[in-house]
Amino acid sequence: MNLGQGKHFSIMDPKGISTVIYQVNQTVNPGENDPKITIQRLASRSQLIGESTKKTFYIEKVDSTANRIIILSFSKDRVIINNGKLLDDEVRISKKPMPLKFDTLYSEKQSEYKEIKYTPSLQRPITVIDPETTEEVKPVLYIDKTTNEVRGKCILKPFKAYFAFEVR
Fold first, then answer.
1. Which of 37, 73, 135, 136 is an S-S bond match for 19, by CB 3.0 to 4.6 Å?
2. 149 is in which domain, residue-wise?
């Protein structure tokens, strides 16, 4: 990890692979209905080197409540999931990825995926990703008039696979 211009680290993605990384943050003094853990996608910059892509990820803060990362590497037909830790001046990536439970999202018609409750800062526990672009599917936000809370729904396109995960 280079500390010259803020904390950042780089990885090499082979041709056909696109990696995104999320920092796992523990909520300090969560309320009864607040999520205990939230995630934040690390900003990144890509540079093509031959047939590979060098991706540099930037870290805003590293402390004892925000030192775990989730690494998602997307290829044409699969997602490789790994995890690691951010330490003072290094990144440690697990040699043996931990087992994770997941479900597949697929529909032949346009649909909404799970009503999601947001924190006041609009953080959410569930993330839906389009594997072709590795971009997050942005939810449509609305106010639940019954509970007066901000909620969101992700609109999914038919005949398309998505990757969704929730950190608990």
1. 73
2. 7-166
Is residue 21 included in any domain, yes or no?
A: yes
pTM over 0.70: yes
Number of independent structural domains in the chain: 1
DSSP 15-71: TT-EEEEEEEEEPSS--TTS-SEEEEEPEEEEEEETTEEEEEEEES---TTS-EEEE
112-161 tens-digit pLDDT:
555 555 554 556 667 888 888 899 888 888 888 888 877 777 788 877 87
> Residue 21 is encoded by which pair of tokens?
């990384």
Q: What is the largest CA-CA distance in the chain?
A: 55
Q: Examine residue 1 and state whether it is found in any structural domain, yes or no.
A: no
Taken in order 81, 87, 91, 94, the sign of the CA dihedral is negative
- Which tens digit of pLDDT belongs to each residue from 101-115? 555 556 677 665 555
Compute the distance between CA of residue 38 and CA of residue 110 in angstroms, rounded to an integer: 28
* 22 backbone dihedrals φ, ψ, rounded to 5°: -115, 140
**Residues sharing a CB contact under 8 Å with residue 60, sequence separation 6 or more, in sequence order:** 40
Could you tell me which residues are beta bridge partners of residue 80? 73
Judge whether 106 lies within some domain.
yes
Nearest alpha-carbon partner for 78 in 106, 112, 104, 100:
104
Phi, psi of 146, deg, nearest 5: -70, -45
